[in-house]
Write a structure and sequence with these properties.
mainly alpha, elongated, 134 residues
Length: 134
């Protein structure tokens, strides 16, 4: 399997997101101020959505190999680490300075989505030119 490392990373990310969500619901509820709990839960939500998106790209890439989708996966992986990771640490430690990292993670996640859009447009254009040549 060509993307075994990415599949493993996505699986681990999904598992961490579920564990973090359960931790927030069962342990942090009532232990953290509402704004910190909400920040933690935002990190969980964004991590899970991007994990699911990674799985979708990996499935698509398995049957339609395209250059550039590795960049999408990398942008999302680093984006989740910076965005969700900083929210988790900030909520658990109260270190507000980490909040400066969070937007960089968000920008990387957005860049991943834009890169995916460009890749999808190119894939469609390539498919049209290939069918026109047949």
């Amino acid at each position: 399997m060509r993307d075994r490392g990415w599949w493993c990373l996505a699986a681990l990310s999904g598992g961490v997101a579920v564990m973090a969500g359960a931790f927030a619901a069962h342990t942090l509820q009532g232990q953290l101020p509402e704004r910190l709990l909400a920040a933690f839960e935002t990190g969980v939500r964004y991590q899970m959505w991007h994990t699911l998106a990674m799985l979708g790209v990996l499935a698509w890439r398995a049957s339609h190999p395209r250059r550039g989708f590795g960049v999408v996966l990398g942008l999302w992986a680093v984006g989740v680490l910076l965005f969700s990771g900083s929210l988790y640490v900030m909520a658990l430690t109260g270190l507000r300075g980490l909040g400066m990292i969070t937007p960089f993670g968000g920008v990387l996640m957005i860049a991943g989505w834009l890169t995916l859009a460009v890749g999808a447009l190119r894939a469609g254009r390539d498919a049209q030119s290939e069918s026109g040549m047949a």
